[in-house]
Each structure stands twice: as structure tokens, then as C-alpha cells.
Amino acid sequence: MFVKHLLPAFVAIGSVAAQSSCSSKTTTINSQDDVSKISGCRKVEGSVVLGSESGATIDLTGPREITGDLIVRNNGQIQNLQSSSLESIGGKFEINNATSLNVISFEKLTSATTVEWVSVTRLDTLTLGPLTKAKSVRLSDTFLNTLDGFALSTVTDLKLDNNRRLSKYTSELTSLDGQLVIQANGLSLEVDLPKLVWITEMAIANVTKFSIPQLQVVNGSARFDSNFFETFSAPNLTHTEDGDISFVGNGFLKNMSFPKFTDLNGGLLIANNTGLDRVTFFPKLEKVTGAIKLRGNFTEISFPSLDNVKGAVDISSTADIRKSCEKLSEFAPRSQGGDGKIEGVFTCTANNDKANEDTDQSTSGSGQVDGSDENDENSASGVVLNAALFGLVAVAAVASAL
Ligand SMILES: *[C@@H]1O[C@H](CO)[C@@H](O)[C@H](O)[C@H]1NC(C)=O
Ligand SMILES: *[C@@H]1O[C@H](CO)[C@@H](O)[C@H](O)[C@H]1NC(C)=O
Ligand SMILES: *[C@@H]1O[C@H](CO)[C@@H](O)[C@H](O)[C@H]1NC(C)=O
Ligand SMILES: *[C@@H]1O[C@H](CO)[C@@H](O)[C@H](O)[C@H]1NC(C)=O
Ligand SMILES: *[C@@H]1O[C@H](CO)[C@@H](O)[C@H](O)[C@H]1NC(C)=O
Ligand SMILES: *[C@@H]1O[C@H](CO)[C@@H](O)[C@H](O)[C@H]1NC(C)=O
Ligand SMILES: *[C@@H]1O[C@H](CO)[C@@H](O)[C@H](O)[C@H]1NC(C)=O
Fold this sequence. Notes:
Residues 352-378 are annotated as: Disordered. This protein has 402 residues and is mostly beta strands.
């Protein structure tokens, strides 16, 4: 108690007379008293590690910079971790398995190379500088309902998972050159990335809204699984540079929009989104370097601008899509009677009750979706329509018209 009361005064004196830097590979803090080892240093050259029996409150006020890591692991005692001076952590700010920690307050902290907080299950009060510079951020299994402490405009990797109270995430991100993973957070998480222009990889699951109004390029892949949104819109997305786009098991999805999307340098997989009854939202899609695989309750499918698909086109619907199949068969390989815009095998199956059971993500590369075993089984009850057949139908129609 006595020490705590004295602490602010001590720190003030300490910082006036602050040593410019203190060097020690690792400073271990087992109690508030131990903080005096570093509280007189402006800069701590090395890492700071909290022991697992630190007590309930640790105030690290003193240093402005820790060049190494700040680590809290397997600590069931700490409830309140704070510093009113720390601006930068050169390495990792790691908190792992600190299940009593509910307040983190670093009001000046704006920079850390990595933030990795995992199993901080009670954490609900967070104050940061805000943090504007970080390469990698992972927040897993916290009790946070807002990420206002983070104001990153670029980041390499960002992973948000199992934050069950998180209901809204709006970010200033303009680009992300590693991976964005968002999954298994609150059942009504709305994600808004209003400034995001390009992103390398993303895997998004279990969100109710995902907004990317400025996104122009996905350099790698974009994957959307088991989300709760009814509509998905990528109004400014023009192409992917090297990767697939997939939407699987988004049970509420009714409508999508990709008005400017022209080039998919990878494959397209749309499967088991049972409310999605049309795939008519790629008005400008010209080129696909992988395969196209569509499975669902579709009544209509069209790719009006399609010019070249290097891989297979493999479509199966629970409903009657024979008209769409017939139209698409015009693009089939020459060996199947089409004009060859599709280079891989063209398959289109209507009235297949089991269309939604095949969600295999095998659309990448220039190879063909392996159509053997899975399709035989899945198309057993359906009507397989192929281009050769349409060739015959078309010829027959012409013949009878004559
Ligand atoms: C988490 O930390 C507690 C101590 O607070 C420890 O007893 C427990 O074994 C740790 N859990 C894991 C998975 O390491
Ligand atoms: C992603 O694509 C954009 C636009 O072409 C480009 O500016 C950016 O450098 C690319 N990012 C990576 C990591 O390749
Ligand atoms: C969350 O998404 C995963 C797929 O990444 C899925 O397996 C899981 O069932 C989903 N959970 C809910 C509640 O939708
Ligand atoms: C697409 O991006 C442009 C340029 O940044 C912007 O003006 C426009 O509002 C965006 N479109 C949509 C539908 O958000
Ligand atoms: C299809 O999606 C539903 C959720 O909409 C899910 O329950 C089911 O397991 C999925 N089926 C397959 C084969 O992925
Ligand atoms: C689908 O979305 C597009 C663009 O957001 C919109 O113009 C169209 O009316 C929507 N269609 C349906 C059936 O909701
Ligand atoms: C999708 O098709 C399956 C198989 O025909 C059917 O059981 C299911 O009710 C359909 N779902 C919707 C939302 O139309």
C-alpha cells in the first residue's frame, strides 16, 4: 500500500533523473517492487517478463521504450496491467493465459512489432495510445467488445478469433500484406474496412456483415465460410492477382455483387450457400486462370463476359438450370462441341439433390477439378448436361427448323 502511494512521486523523480537507457537481456517482474529495476530507465534494452505470481496490479510506468518483448504468460493473478509512459515495444507484446486480467491500460503505447494476446478471457477494458504501428496483431479469446485501442493503417497479419463479445470492428486499414483472419467471434460481428484498398489473403467466417467499399485488389485468396450475411458486395474489386475466391456454407447469403471484377487469377468456388439462387453477379468477369466450381440451389447462372477459363467449369444445382447449362455450353472446349473459351472439362448438372454436399476446395491451378469419384456420386440423381449433348440438341433443332 505504502509503496503504491509513493509510486507516482517516485516515478516522477525517477524520470527527471532518468537514465537514458538500461540494458539487461531479460528483466523479470515478480511484484510491483520489482518494477523499480526499470522504472528509472527511459529505454529498456531487452525484454520484460512478468512472473506468474505477480499479484493483481502491475504498473510499469517509467520506461518509454522496451526494445525487446513484454511478456505475461500463465499468470492467473494479474487483473490490471498498466503503464502511463510506455510508447513503444520493439518486439512482441505477448499475453498468454492470463485469465484474471481485465484491464490493460497503456495510454501512450502507439507501436509494437507484434501484439499477441491469447486466452485473456476476462479482458474487457483496454486503453492504448491508440496503437498505430504494428506488423502483426492477434487477439484470441478475449472479452473485448471493441477494438478502439487499435488504429492501424497497415499491418501484415491480423487475426481476430474467439472474441465472443466483439460485435463491431471498424478499421482504418488501407492495406494488409499478409493474412487477415476473422472467425468465431460474437455471433453478430460486423466488420467494416472502409479504407482497405488491397489485401493479400483473407479468411472470413461467422460475421454478419463484411464491408469493403474501396477494395480493388486481392493479391492472394479470399475465403468466406459460414458467415451470416445476406448480401456481399465488392463494388470496387477488379481482380485477384494469385489466388482463389470462395464462398462456402454461407447459409443466409442471397445476393452478391462484383460489378467491376474482370480477372480471377485463381479459381472460383461457390458452394452450399443454399439461399443463393442465382450466380449472375459477375457481369464483367473475363478471365479465370483456375477452375470454376459452383454447387448450390441455383436457378440461373451466367457469365456474360467470360472469355477464357484455363481450368474446368463444373456446375451442379439442386434446381433446374438446364437453360443456363445450355448457354454456358457454348464456351465449352472444342472437344465438347463449344468454342473453346473454357479449356478444362465442362460439366453442368441440373436437379441434383446432393449438389450442396460437395464443398471441396479444389479450384486452384490450371488443372481440372477432379470430376471422377465425387461427381459420379453427387450427380447420380441429377441430369448431367454436357456440351457434346448440347451440340446434338442444337443440330437437331436446326435440322427440324429446316
Ligand atoms: C494457465 O495458467 C495457469 C496459472 O494461472 C496454469 O495453472 C495453467 O496450467 C495454464 N494453462 C495452460 C494451458 O498452460
Ligand atoms: C497487391 O496489389 C496492389 C495493386 O496491384 C499492389 O499495389 C501491392 O503492392 C500488392 N501487394 C503485394 C503484397 O504484392
Ligand atoms: C464458424 O465458421 C466455421 C468455419 O470456419 C464453421 O465450421 C462453424 O460452424 C461456424 N460457426 C457458426 C456458429 O456458424
Ligand atoms: C469505389 O472507389 C472510388 C474511389 O476510391 C470511390 O469514390 C467510390 O465511392 C467507391 N465505390 C463504392 C461503391 O463505394
Ligand atoms: C452446408 O451449410 C450448412 C450451413 O448453412 C451446414 O450446416 C452444412 O454442414 C454444410 N454442408 C456441407 C457439406 O458443408
Ligand atoms: C443484389 O444486389 C445488387 C447490388 O447490391 C442490387 O442491385 C440488386 O437489386 C440485388 N438483388 C436482389 C435480388 O436483392
Ligand atoms: C436447397 O436444395 C435442397 C435439395 O433440393 C433442399 O432440401 C433445400 O431446402 C434447398 N434450400 C433452399 C434454401 O432452397
